[in-house]
Amino acid sequence: MPFLELDTSLPANRLPPALAQELCAAGAEILGKPAERVNVTVRSGLPMVVSGSAEPCAQLLVSSIGVVGSAEQNREHSARLFDFLTAKLGLGPERIVIRFFPLEPWQIGKNRTVMTFL
């Protein structure tokens, strides 16, 4: 069950209208998970600084069970996610940061229990 949280200083009117849905589909493909399990949040218009600069930027947090736990996995995910984000946001790769967090099944609650028991 991946979670993709995109924060950006770009105003909402500069984002593609279906960005959340497109990020869901891209995340599912890149992480090898069904889209029905992917959760996406997009927050725009935030005051942000990346690499010491307040120029337009974005940060993506990717957390999931089993698919973001190694440098090798994340190197591949990073390249593909950067391709998606630079194309959709119109930002250079130096203005985007991606953070990966591996999750354990007991850290995600769903349907009144945790993923361990589903």
From TrEMBL:
<protein>
    <recommendedName>
        <fullName>D-dopachrome decarboxylase</fullName>
        <ecNumber>4.1.1.84</ecNumber>
    </recommendedName>
</protein>
<dbReference type="GO" id="GO:0005615">
    <property type="term" value="C:extracellular space"/>
</dbReference>
<dbReference type="GO" id="GO:0005737">
    <property type="term" value="C:cytoplasm"/>
</dbReference>
<dbReference type="GO" id="GO:0050178">
    <property type="term" value="F:phenylpyruvate tautomerase activity"/>
</dbReference>
<keyword id="KW-0456">Lyase</keyword>
<comment type="function">
    <text>Tautomerization of D-dopachrome with decarboxylation to give 5,6-dihydroxyindole (DHI).</text>
</comment>
<keyword id="KW-0963">Cytoplasm</keyword>
<dbReference type="InterPro" id="IPR019829">
    <property type="entry name" value="Macrophage_inhib_fac_CS"/>
</dbReference>
<comment type="subunit">
    <text>Homotrimer.</text>
</comment>
<comment type="similarity">
    <text>Belongs to the MIF family.</text>
</comment>
<dbReference type="Pfam" id="PF01187">
    <property type="entry name" value="MIF"/>
</dbReference>
<dbReference type="InterPro" id="IPR014347">
    <property type="entry name" value="Tautomerase/MIF_sf"/>
</dbReference>
<keyword id="KW-0470">Melanin biosynthesis</keyword>
<keyword id="KW-0007">Acetylation</keyword>
<dbReference type="GO" id="GO:0033981">
    <property type="term" value="F:D-dopachrome decarboxylase activity"/>
</dbReference>
<dbReference type="InterPro" id="IPR001398">
    <property type="entry name" value="Macrophage_inhib_fac"/>
</dbReference>
<dbReference type="GO" id="GO:0042438">
    <property type="term" value="P:melanin biosynthetic process"/>
</dbReference>
